[in-house]
Each structure stands twice: as C-alpha cells, then as structure tokens.
Automatic annotation (TrEMBL):
GO cellular component assignments: cytosol
The species this protein was found in: Chromohalobacter japonicus
This protein's pathway: Carbohydrate biosynthesis; gluconeogenesis; Carbohydrate degradation; glycolysis; D-glyceraldehyde 3-phosphate and glycerone phosphate from D-glucose: step 2/4
Official protein name in the record: Glucose-6-phosphate isomerase
Gene Ontology MF term list: carbohydrate derivative binding; glucose-6-phosphate isomerase activity; monosaccharide binding
Gene Ontology biological process terms in this record: gluconeogenesis; glucose 6-phosphate metabolic process; glycolytic process
Top-level taxonomic group: Bacteria
Job description of the protein: Catalyzes the reversible isomerization of glucose-6-phosphate to fructose-6-phosphate.
Enzyme Commission (EC) number: 5.3.1.9
Active site, per annotation: E367 (proton donor), H398, K522
Subcellular localization, as worded in the UniProt entry: Cytoplasm
Length: 559
C-alpha cells in the first residue's frame, strides 16, 4: 500500500472513525440494556473454546464495519498465503510456516518446490526416540547413570513457549516412566543456572541448547558455563579425553536451524535436532524447540498439542470471517486500539497452570506487532500493538486490579478460564475441595469482568457513595473459556493468539515475523562489554553511560 492506499484511508476505516465518534461516550452498561441476548450475539464457539466478546464497546454495525475493513485488507487471501507457504515475511524474504509444523503426516505442503511435511515428521520421530530413551531410563550420562534432570538453555521463543506449555500441562506428566525433571535457564546473568549447578548432580544432568540462530549470547554464555561445570566435575577439567567426549555426547542436545554452528560448538550430530529458517523463534514451540514439553508430558500428549493447533489452523482458514475466532479477537483489539484509544491490554488467566501464559504472549504480541513501519517502509500513521502484560487473574486482583477499576487508563482485558477442572483427582474428598476452589475461581473471573463493565452499577442499590468508593466501569473485556485445559485445547488456544496477531498485522500492514528492533541493542551491548572489560574507549560514550561504567570500575577498584 502507498500512503494514499493505506488502510486508514479506506472507506471502512473512515466509516469506523465516524462511528467511533458516536460510540466513544456510550457506556458499556447501556449497550447491555439496548437489546437482550447480547452474550449470544457476540459469542462464538469452536475448537473447544468459547469466545465471549459481548463486553466490548461495540454494536452489530461496528462489527460489520470491522469485517468490511478486514475484507478491504484482503484478509482471506492473506490467511491462504500464510498457510500455503508464500513469502509473507517480507523483510527476511521467507515464508512463516509454523502451521506446517502441526500438519498431520498424511498432508503435503510444497514450498518452493519441496514438500516440507516429511522433514517435519522425521524431526518429530527423532524427538520421539530421544524422549522414549529418557523415559526408559536408557539415556545415560558419561558415568553410566540415567538422566534425572534436563535443563533447557534458551531465551525468548527458545524458552517462553516450552516453559509456558510444560507448566500448563504438568497434570499430563506420564507416571509409569523413568522420571525426568525439566528446568529452564534463560537469563544471561546466570542466576537460574547458578542455582541448578549447586543442586544438580552433573552425572545425571542433560542440557538442551535451544537457539534458532545458535548465536544468542545469553544462551551461549549459559551453555559454556554448563559445559565447564560438567568438564570440571566429570572429566578432570577436560584432561580426561575419553570422559570429555562422553560428556559432550551424553550431556548435550542441540536444537537449532543452524546445524553447522551446533557441530562447531561440539554437539554430536546424532544429538542435533533441527528446524528451519521459515519457523519464527516465537512460533517455534511446535517442533524441536518443544523437546522439553515432549520430555515432560510424553510424545502422545505433544502430538495432541499439535493436533489442537492444527484444529485452529483449519478453523482459521475455513471459517467465514463472521464466525472466525482469531479474526473476531483481532478485530476487537483493532477497534479498541485504533478507534477507542484503548492502548493497554492485560492477559488474565484464571488457572494457575497458565502462570506463564502472559509472559509468552508478551513476546508473541509485542515482538510481532510492536512495529511502526509498514511493509512498504512508510511510518504507520495509526497505532499498532498495545502495551500488553498480565498475571494470573486471582493474584492480579490483589495487585494491579486497583488500576483497572479506579485508575485513569483504559485497558482491554482477556479473561481466560477452563470450565471443568479436577475431574481426574482420585481422592473424592480432595476432589470436592478442589472443585469448590475452581467454582470460586470461576465466580471471581465472571464477577471481575462484570464489575469492569458495569462499575458502580454492579451493586444492587444505588446508595450514594463517597468518591473513593466509586467504580467507573466501562473497561472492555473478552472472556475466553476452554472446555478443559488439555494438550489439545491448549494447542488451539496458543494458535488462536498466533493467528490473532497475524490478522492485526495484516490490517496494520506490518510484518509480524521479523524483530529488527532487538538488533541494535545487541550490537551496542557487545561494544559496551568490550569497553567495560578493557576500560578503553569510554570517551566515545554519552555522559550517563560513561558515568555508570565509572561506578562499576570504582567498585571493582574498591574505591
Ligand atoms: O533477540 C530476539 C530473539 O531473536 C527472539 O526473536 C528469539 O526468540 C530469541 O532472540 C532467541 O533467539 P535464538 O533462538 O536464535 O537464540
């Protein structure tokens, strides 16, 4: 699109802008009294999920105009181009084919002359062999003892997806296998790793080095500390060549799109799992990057996760825009950000197993759509990704809900909860208690979105209240209910958000699959590290940075 054909010049955008002028002062509570049955009109079901969008500040005609906007952006064709493997990642000139990672084995997807499905399934089969070996207690460390602890070393997409899913599916851990505990170390300062190194036995610890690029300094620093720890403790600091070889072979698995870099680092080719440049880092948990998930829950459950995501891919591709869950979720966001000036978005799961879901979405949404230049290189004259953050809803009620209820910021909220829980708890008394806790949690989930919508009117009587006890309400929210949190519904939930991000990017005409914004910081950090270590070149820095390095040097000198 050129300036004149940009989306904000389109007829639908103009109509929406005029409509927003009418809607801006309409309070959510009054929309509920206009017509009965608002929940039914704005709720859609599919793929084990129920999406209630009735608590948004919109009417039927708003949604029609948004759907028209989506059609003007040629969304249906964009969805097909994504899933067909066309080069939708323009700045890096490649496809973005995370959907191919969850295609069933009998499918075929020819991308630039090659069917990618056999390669995908070959990697899954290699993962399965590794998982089964660990679960049979047959993956042995250098001294011959079975592995008991696996530490994933990775950051961003090579950490957040596996961490989030492993935690969410902890109930699905197989019991009848050799037990292996899964841990994650991501931070470059080594604090997570340092803790593991004091507690774990090197003879029974396996490291998974997860890095698409295999150049990420955070991961490589952790990896080199881990390698030294193993060598010191098991191979006489590398003097014992036979043990050194065994350490490298038996204590490291590499996962990357760069096999040659894994080999250079010393990963045995038999223990390398690969994925492809056409899988974005934050979209990669569905393949080899998901190894920690498969180790935690077993390969059958991992395949169920893929099946759930594939269900959502099909829904996204085959369902009309009017009933399409990712499309509707995205359009609610566009309406809030671009027309109602709601530029903050909170993710609030009402289920402790989704503890890391908000962190995962922070990367997925903000690294994908935190952009201000269109695919044609023009500055976007409209807002794009809102600031997105979150926390487990019940805990956030005791932390930042104060701002949601009485602060000055307009915030869009996503409430997420499973309808059923604890059916598999064996002891009847404990099950009854836990089910009561689940009921309490669901009640809180529904109550909070209600108070955010209605404000004071949620109270039965209109008794005058002092101003510090007033609730303004009018905060828009989505409620997303899962039948149950299972590998399959979780797969669908994650894919829902992936596709939501794609829909918004399509309408904003930005590329959700690159992340150039993170590069300059890496380069400057590397230069700064050289100055910090050598104490030379600080005069080239700005006054604040120079002053801060001085503080460090003075501390090092004991001044
Ligand atoms: O720096 C950002 C980033 O490239 C993310 O996009 C990515 O998920 C993360 O770093 C880790 O990258 P890699 O998997 O290449 O180590």
């Amino acid at each position: 699109m050129t300036q004149s054909t940009m989306i904000h010049h389109s007829p639908a955008w103009q109509r929406l802008a005029a409509h927003a002028d009418e809607m801006r002062d309409v309070h959510l509570k009054s929309l509920f009294t206009e017509h009965s049955g608002r929940h039914a009109r704005f709720t859609r079901r599919g793929v084990g999920l129920t999406l209630d969008l009735s608590k948004h500040r919109w009417r039927d005609e708003t949604l029609s105009m948004l759907l028209e906007l989506a059609r003007e952006a040629d969304l249906e064709r964009a969805i097909a181009r994504l899933q067909n493997g066309e080069r939708v990642n323009l700045s890096e000139d490649r496809p973005a084919l995370h959907t191919a990672l969850r295609l069933p084995p009998e499918a075929s997807l020819v991308v630039e002359g090659e069917d990618v499905v056999p390669d995908v399934h070959e990697t899954l089969a290699r993962m399965q062999a590794m998982v089964e070996k660990c679960h049979a207690g047959q993956w042995r460390g250098a001294t011959g003892r079975p592995i008991t602890d696996v530490v994933n070393l990775g950051v961003g997409g090579s950490d957040l997806g596996p961490l989030m899913v492993t935690h969410a599916l902890a109930d699905y851990r197989p019991r009848d296998v050799h037990q292996v505990d899964i841990h994650f170390a991501s931070t470059m300062d080594g604090s997570q790793l340092a803790d593991y190194l004091t507690r774990f036995n090197p003879a029974t610890t396996l490291f998974v080095l997860s890095s698409k690029s295999f150049t990420t300094i955070d991961t490589l620093s952790n990896a080199s500390t881990a390698r030294d720890w193993l060598m010191t403790r098991l191979a006489d600091g590398g003097q014992d060549t036979e043990m050194s070889e065994l350490v490298m072979r038996q204590h490291f698995i590499g996962v990357s799109a760069k096999p040659e870099r894994m080999s250079e680092w010393g990963i045995d080719p038999r223990h390398q799992l690969r994925f492809w440049e056409w899988v974005g880092g934050r979209y990669s948990l569905w393949g080899a990057i998901g190894l920690p998930i498969a180790l935690a829950v077993g390969m059958d459950n991992f395949r169920e996760l893929l099946a759930g995501a594939h269900d959502m891919d099909r829904h996204f591709r085959e369902t009309s825009l009017e009933d399409n869950l990712p499309v509707l979720l995205a359009l609610a966001g566009i309406w809030n950000v671009n027309f109602l000036d709601v530029r903050a978005h909170s993710i609030l799961p009402y289920d402790g197993r989704l503890e890391y879901f908000a962190s995962y979405l922070e990367q997925l949404e903000m690294e994908s759509n935190g952009k201000s230049v269109t695919n044609q290189g023009e500055i976007t004259p409209y807002s794009t990704c809102p600031v997105l953050w979150g926390q487990l809803g019940p805990n956030a009620q005791h932390a930042f809900y104060q701002l949601l209820h009485q602060g000055t910021q307009a915030v869009e909220c996503d409430f997420i909860a499973p309808v059923r829980r604890y059916d598999r708890v064996e002891d009847p008394a404990t099950r009854a208690h836990l089910k009561a806790q689940h009921r309490l949690t669901l009640a809180n989930c529904v109550a909070q979105s209600r108070v955010l919508m209605l404000g004071d009117e949620a109270l039965p009587s209109d008794v005058p209240r002092p101003s510090h006890k007033r609730y303004r309400g009018n905060q828009p929210s989505t409620t997303l209910m899962l039948d149950r949190l299972t590998p399959r519904t979780l797969g669908a939930l994650i894919a829902l958000y992936e596709h939501k991000v794609f829909v918004q990017a399509t309408l904003w005409d930005i590329n959700p699959f690159d992340q150039w914004g993170v590069e300059l910081g890496k380069q400057i950090a590397s230069e700064t590290e050289q100055i910090l270590a050598s104490r030379r070149g600080a005069e080239t820095l700005d006054d604040s940075s120079r002053g801060l390095l001085d503080v460090v040097w003075q501390a090092q000198d004991g001044i």
